[in-house]
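Researcher: Let's do a round of design. I'm pasting the structure tokens now; please hold your answer until I've finished.
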């Protein structure tokens, strides 16, 4: 079976099916075998693994996954790609293709049905506009995940692993690091895709934590505080939280809570780590 990891083969498949890229799906297909090898290596896939692939495209990465994994389930949202996938993956007997939106799939049901409820490995070359919603949905639904290896915009990968006080640090950094340990596996230039994206990309592996790094009584409140403190990141922590429509505390309650956990109300949210946000959430919940 012909491998898709080169421009000529990709062009032939697209022409054969009269396929045209659709901007609304953010489609950029990989055409570099070295990058594909790096994704497989980063994900640490073996014959004992069940892999959920999000957005298989024409099946370029899927072919590599099928050769390494025990079973692959690929979820593709674009109906025009389904017949292409049926052709390009016809030589593999360990693949199942689902046409649908990953945000509407029952991931827990998938884990139970295909993997006996054991942790799933997720691999994806995601459209950049929907990267964060998909990753956060996977984490926040608390389905059993071993790791999530994704191709993302380089800037997003840097934000995922950023530390307090840096310009990349934000709500995404805290959200990802609450659920997983991020590891930047490879930088990927635009010429590795067809069509070429306007920005650089990166492969990042998120090793899912068996327990969260901090204990917090109200997880949702903590993330509301995090979002509020970064919505206006140049404001002080106190002003950012006071001005947030998503919080229902008075300015005085917020000031007292900030001081009770040993912080200066004039500090900015970008200086706080997960432990401090968790302590602040617990203090406000107590009030």
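Researcher: That's everything. Go ahead.
Model: Designed sequence:
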């Amino acid at each position: 079976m012909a491998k898709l990891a080169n421009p000529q083969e990709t062009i032939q498949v697209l022409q054969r099916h009269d396929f045209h890229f659709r901007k609304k799906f953010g489609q950029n297909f990989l055409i570099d075998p070295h990058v594909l090898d790096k994704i497989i290596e980063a994900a640490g896939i073996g014959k004992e693994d069940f892999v959920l692939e999000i957005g298989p495209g024409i099946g370029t990465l899927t072919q590599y996954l099928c050769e390494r994994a025990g079973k692959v389930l690929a979820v593709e949202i674009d109906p025009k790609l389904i017949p292409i996938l049926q052709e390009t993956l016809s030589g593999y007997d360990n693949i199942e293709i689902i046409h649908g939106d990953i945000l509407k799939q029952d991931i827990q049901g998938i884990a139970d049905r295909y993997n006996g409820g054991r942790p799933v490995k997720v691999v994806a070359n995601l459209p950049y506009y929907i990267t964060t919603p998909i990753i956060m949905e996977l984490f926040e639904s608390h389905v059993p995940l071993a790791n999530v290896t994704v191709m993302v915009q380089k800037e997003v990968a840097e934000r995922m692993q950023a530390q307090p006080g840096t310009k990349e640090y934000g709500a995404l950094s805290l959200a990802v690091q609450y659920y997983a340990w991020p590891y930047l596996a490879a930088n990927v230039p635009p010429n590795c895709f067809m069509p070429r994206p306007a920005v650089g990309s990166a492969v990042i592996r998120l090793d899912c934590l068996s327990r969260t790094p901090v204990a917090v009584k109200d997880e949702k409140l903590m993330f509301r505080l995090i979002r509020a403190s970064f919505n206006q990141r140049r404001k002080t922590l106190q002003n950012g939280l006071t001005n947030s429509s998503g919080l229902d505390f008075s300015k005085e309650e917020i000031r007292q809570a900030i001081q009770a956990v040993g912080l200066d109300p004039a500090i900015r949210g970008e200086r706080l780590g997960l432990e401090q946000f968790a302590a602040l959430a617990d203090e406000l919940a107590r009030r």
